[in-house]
Amino acid sequence: MADIRDRTDTDLEELGQEEARIGSTLPPDKTDSGRRRRRPLFVILAVVVGVVVYALAFQQTQVDLSEITSETRQNSLQNILRALAQPDLITYDTVSERTDIEVAVPCGPSVATSPRLTANPSCGEPGDRITVTGSGYDGGEPVELHFVPDSDFDITLRLATVNADQEGRFSTELILPDRTSDEPQGLTAITQEPIGTWGNRVEVYTDANENEIEDNPVMPDSGTYTFTLAGNPDIPAVALVNPAGETTDFVTTGESFEAATGLSRGQVAIPLGEDESATAAGLAIEDIATAGGDVEVTVEGPAGFDMSNWRAAVYDGTTGEPGASNYISDTIRLSPRVSETARITLDKILETVFLALVATTAGLLLAVPLSFVAARNIMRDISVTVTNLVLILVAIPVGATIGVLAARLARSMVAPITGSGWALLAGVAVVGGLAWFLARAALPTVDAGVPARSERIRRVSLLMVAGAAGLVALLLTALWLQVIGSAVVSALGWFGFLGSFFDALGEILDVGFTVIAALAVAAVFTHLASKLGYGLRKLMPRPAERTLNVALAAVAGALWAVIVGQIIDWFYQIGNVTTVVVIPAVIGALLGVVVAIRGMAKGEVDIGLSIYYGARTVFNTLRSIEPLIMAIVFVVWVGAGPFAGSLALALHTAAALAKLYSEQVESISAGPIEAVRATGANRLQTIVYAVVPQIIPPYISFTMYRWDINVRMSTILGFVGGGGIGSILQQNINLLQYRAAAVQMLAIAIVVATMDWASSRMREHYV
Amino acid sequence: MLQVEHLTKVYENGTVALEDVSFEVPDGQFLAVIGLSGSGKSTLLRCINRLIEPTDGRILWNGEDVTHASQEDLRRFRRRVGMVFQHFNLVHRSRVITNVLAGRLGYTNPAMALVNRFSKADTTSALAQLDRVGLREKAHSRADELSGGQQQRVGIARALMQDPEMILADEPVASLDPVLAHSIMRYLELINQEDKVTVLCSLHFLDLVHRYSDRAIALNEGKLVFDGLPSAIDDDKFKEIYGQEAERVG
């Protein structure tokens, strides 16, 4: 691993001396003065190139300072900045204050104690301009001016918004709308006054169910509350929906049915009386009755329970069609209170942080093993003989295929107990214990002398059985996690997400099981192939070995070329056996023969460096694709949402971290590695004892740094539907709701700053 | 017995580090390897346990060919050959005891590395070896908290953990002051005399060669230019080994 580097002490010194000698033989004056004369030219050239480059850059980015200074642009900027400076964190309910026109007699300005409006002239044709003057407002207060047309409906036309001056006056010109009437029409000025202060919050009553009766939203001491909904189906069914939009109770007076549409679509209505659930969730339906064209519903719940924002929907129990739905009571809210935007933002920023966490963790798990493959100093001296190479190339696809088949077999074997949690648990314990026991028996702690052939065969077969048992135990664990996870979701209530988490973990293991089995069997086959290759080399005469190599190389080449052909077929759907099987096989076989003959001439093949370059290329390609663009692909694949975002980010993170990590592996000091190798340690031991201790601090540091980047990245993944806070930020910007956008920006700033601080603290601590 | 036959090493960049070097080392000998910086001393020592693959020639250990040994045979050979380095080559962030235990890796099942476990007997013997070099109380310190001389003693303890039949010491005292140099050399001498371990030690200072070694070989630009008793290095021989302009300092 460290051949060249080790000579550094002595040889570099020598090289240095040599360089010095070479330097001294050159005529010093000539080159020096030449360089000195050329230097100004270079500087001028560099300046010219620089000017041209930046001129092009200005043109491309459309730099235009007149835009910056223009008044309309500055006004827009001012509006945006003011909106951004007032993030919509707190909602105040407002009371509208209407001012009708009064006529002042006698004429002339008078000091108004309450707001008043004057219109001049007070009549006109559509399109005429009239001057409206107001006074008595609060200084700087925005005033909305509305035209109140003569109409049966309660509508107004907003004409303008003006700001009162410091004295509370304004004067503006309005254009009369094209609304003519025989009756006199009105002008109204509306101002919004926030109610309450943080120190003294005010209860605001809202007639949410619009029955024009004040219904107290608090459950009375009796524990039951009755409300009515419009509708008169023969067999009424009622669904109760909590403020979060979830159906907590769905009861019918007739037969059970499933709602296809409406507020509770997908839910099943349970006949009244058979229904035992839902009291834990707050409210439950106790009785349903029809009375005078209305459905009368009685709900029960704990006394003092706040029923604000609970809704109910009527269904027709015969057809399953939805009827009316409404709030079950009025609501009482406090003003001021934390705004809805703030609530949503908190929710979304948490999603963002967790998205980044999941992506970083998944990326980390992939990147750590891959980083060794992409480290030159680890891979440099891995070379195999041609015999071994071709045997391994045949062994990998064969092993992987057998692994997939074995996985299928294992699945069918455990199928009978798949449903039962206890059987699965017992299976995990028995099979896992067996694997552990066999592995212990096969692996002596001390590896003493050369074991006898029979002993070797015993160990290898024990290990294989142990490995197979381990894989089955893994599958059983995956199934068990899913059974247990989905079973406890409802039992855990608020902590149901833990059940879902185990369920998801089980699913990941389940999906990964086939891959793991394929990799494991391929690895075993690779190992056996290299043993076989070594044995063949020892036993066979050289010419026979060469012939075998060429033949095997042809097989290996054909095999891999057919695999590539199948992939191409999948993409382009050629479906022609000659093109996707026969031709690739022939070309692959020929290539294999050529490579084998060339490789045999060299003696050994630097397989390590080939893998190194391959891994590097893949990482660099993946890294160069922005997560935003990957997210678009994943959104198509798994649907919009944070899952797509975390997959995209995880893939990018894996590539980026693998590259950063591998560079750390490359820069570790070689001394400990050669010292550990000198003790007889094999590759795995060398990595564990000499490489890993050296790379832990930079790995931690880079991981923290990456999480930091991922949090920032995930804030914008929402722009393409990748979940996180980005989607609502974009929405608010597009809807020109800058105050709401400001909340999201504030949240992002706080989270990023916190992450930055935390990661730098943790890096300080660990490194 | 170690036999080196026609050993040649040419690096990929064309540098000839060793050219047709042959010599034998009987069991239990303290052999000093001398020569200028860059004369091939380090390459020679590393070719013996194949940390560097020789280009040509053979190395025989008790009659068995090391140069063409399989990975497994090489592992079994290496674990009986301890190595001590100029820059100690300890894993800085690991504890002293872990560094010493690393000497047992050639005897431990590689699968155990995954769970980072050594047997109880190994741990006890690691503490005993640390005791031998006078560093038992430092067993749980981090290796980089130790001074240079202490680090080299840990390096020796690591080599001793291998239960070695031979120790390759690559300028073990070149980074230490003269007092420490003698103390380290005395440990090597002790191991050579008490445990009958063969020692191949490359050295810079002739007084150390005279004092500690039974025999010396000298390399100049990869060629063996001297093989004999340290006392046989007279002024002429000295100039042949170190070049015409060199002057004796020690």
General description of the model:
The complex is a heterodimer of chains A (767) and B (250). Chain A is of the alpha+beta class. Helices cover 57% and strands 15% of the residues of chain A. A six-stranded mixed beta sheet of chain A has the order 13-14-12-11-17-18, with no helix packed on it. In chain A, helix 8 runs antiparallel to helix 11, helix 9 runs antiparallel to helix 10 and helix 18 runs antiparallel to helix 20. By secondary structure, chain B is α/β, with parallel strands linked by helices. At the A-B interface, helix 1, helix 2, helix 17 and helix 18 of A face helix 1, helix 2, strand 6 and helix 5 of B.
Give a quick set of tags describing it.
heterodimer, A: 767 residues, 4-stranded antiparallel β-sheet, disordered N terminus, B: 250 residues, alpha/beta, 32% helix
Largest sheet of chain B: 6 strands, mixed
- Low-pLDDT runs of chain A: 1-29
- Our estimate of the beta-strand percent of chain A is 15-25%
Characterize the largest beta sheet of chain A: strand count, sense, and whether it forms a barrel. 6 strands, mixed
**Total strand count of chain B, please?**
10
Oligomer: heterodimer
Radius of gyration of chain B: 18 Å
End-to-end CA span of chain A: 26 Å
Secondary-structure-based class of chain B equals: alpha/beta
Give the SSE order of chain B as H and E letters.
EEEHEEHEHHHEHEHEEH
Strand tally of chain A is 22
Please, what is the average pLDDT of chain A? Answer: 82
User: What percent of residues of chain B are in strands?
Assistant: 15-25%
